[in-house]
Amino acid sequence: MSQVAEIRAFLDPAHTEFAERCGAYCREELRALPEPHDDDAARVQAREVLDWMGHAGWFGPIAEGDLRELCLLREAVASASPLADAVVALQGLSITPLLLAENEAMRSTWLQPALQGAAMGAFALTEAEAGSDVAAIATTAVRHDDVYVLNGEKTFISNAGIADFYIVFATTDPSAGTRGLTAFVVGAATPGFEFVAPQVLSSPHPLGTVAFRDCAVPSACRLGDEGQGFKLGMMTLDKLRVSVGAAACGMAARALEESLAHVAAREQFGKPLAEYQLVQDKLARMYVELAASRLLVYRAAWEKDQGAERLTLEAATAKVGATEAAQRIIDHGVQLLGGRGVLANNVVDRMYRSIRALRIYEGTSEIQHIIIARQLLAAAQQEA
Ligand SMILES: Cc1cc2nc3c(=O)[nH]c(=O)nc-3n(C[C@H](O)[C@H](O)[C@H](O)COP(=O)(O)OP(=O)(O)OC[C@H]3O[C@@H](n4cnc5c(N)ncnc54)[C@H](O)[C@@H]3O)c2cc1C
């Protein structure tokens, strides 16, 4: 079934053409990539994918500000390779703050290399004691004339150890909570920056801990004013969270595709599994949840493309709705494949291992529920 069937109402003709083009690229180029056998191999493959995709111009949608195009890209890429999707996601998370903040020097240093796949970005927000609670960030940035001296550690950082530049959130005013946070661009070659150690996931994804030890960062590397870091980070996540929902749709769609092929071919008790109504029930449930998720994702992306400045409610709804649904869809897929569904080299098993992290990163499902409820309560209060 066409990737755009359920969402045509939210797309322009150019989007449909883009979806066909990037769908073909992902099927022909990315699906053939083997799943890396360990963390070192994942790091090598992530850099290769960055290079290929950047050279072919696939990071363009991040800069063009067309969120529907970015969602179509992530959906197609995630259905072919969750690792390649992580590469796209992190280019998005590191390029978007460069676009949002008024800092020409940082844009001219990093933007083109990042878009062309010559420079890999990372987004360093999380710390050991500051996960969901961003206000607890303890990394400090103390100004001395024309430099800020950074001290602290960031953990669970995608692309840690292989990125060329990091968007780092540190406090310039520890007494001010989120209002004291400031964002910086830190090159990996900056003295005092250190890759501490990798963190290894069950689904290949370069992740790890980095540290700043008296790391002197020129004030020209600051993104926005002091104290504006939280707003910049949240504006970035507002936009990118919708595309996390799109990636979830891609993984779920792949599980449905593999399940349809399997139940048509596999015979038990003398006929194909596809002929049993209990099997059909699972297929239908998978499709209904996938179609509903796509509507949430592309409705939110459409709102953004119409000029909505913030998308807090729509983005949180799309992210939690699509990632939670994808987990259920892929789980049905594993069940339909039987024993083959839990073999480590089976693509549905890979999707099963990969989808789990999407319910956690860029704000957990619980945090999305809190955001949604707060928005609803505020709107209800305003109406009253
Ligand atoms: C694969 C992966 C990649 C990541 N990449 C990055 C990255 O590139 N950059 C980056 O900065 N971070 C990254 N992260 C970190 C991620 O954003 C955090 O893991 C996430 O925000 C949750 O933080 P935590 O793990 O500390 O969990 P905690 O905040 O400790 O939460 C643990 C549990 O408690 C729940 N909880 C927390 N507070 C509340 C509350 N108030 N009410 C109800 N429940 C609550 C959470 O929902 C969760 O279920 C990544 C994580 C993963 C798994």
Overview features:
four-stranded antiparallel beta sheet, 384 residues, 54% helix, four-stranded mixed beta sheet, Butyryl-Coa Dehydrogenase, subunit A, domain 1, Butyryl-CoA Dehydrogenase, subunit A, domain 2, globular, binds flavin-adenine dinucleotide, alpha+beta, 3 domains, Butyryl-CoA Dehydrogenase, subunit A, domain 3
SSE layout:
Layout lengths: L12 H18 L8 H17 L4 H5 L2 H14 L1 H19 L3 H12 L5 E4 L15 E5 L2 E12 L6 E7 L9 E7 L5 E6 L8 E12 L3 E2 L5 H37 L1 E2 L2 E2 L4 H29 L6 H26 L9 H12 L6 H19 L1
Parallel strand pairs: 1-4
Antiparallel strand pairs: 2-3, 3-7, 4-5, 5-8, 6-7, 9-10
Helix pairs in contact: 1-4, 2-5, 4-5, 4-7, 5-6, 5-7, 7-8, 7-9, 7-10, 8-9, 9-10, 9-11
Description:
This protein is α+β, with helices and mostly antiparallel strands. The protein has three domains: 5-115, Acyl-CoA dehydrogenase/oxidase, N-terminal domain (Butyryl-Coa Dehydrogenase, subunit A, domain 1, Orthogonal Bundle); 121-227, Butyryl-CoA Dehydrogenase, subunit A, domain 2; 231-383, Up-down Bundle (Butyryl-CoA Dehydrogenase, subunit A, domain 3). It is 54% helix and 15% strand. It has eleven helices and ten strands. Strands 1-4-5-8 form a four-stranded mixed β-sheet. Strands 2-3-7-6 form a four-stranded antiparallel β-sheet, with no helix packed on it. Strand 6 and strand 7 (207-218) form a beta hairpin. Helix 1 packs parallel to helix 4 (67-80), helix 7 packs antiparallel against helix 8 and helix 7 runs parallel beside helix 9 (312-337). The chain is globular and about 80 Å long. It starts with 12 loop residues before the first helix and ends with a helix. The model has no long low-confidence stretch (mean pLDDT 96). The structure holds flavin-adenine dinucleotide.
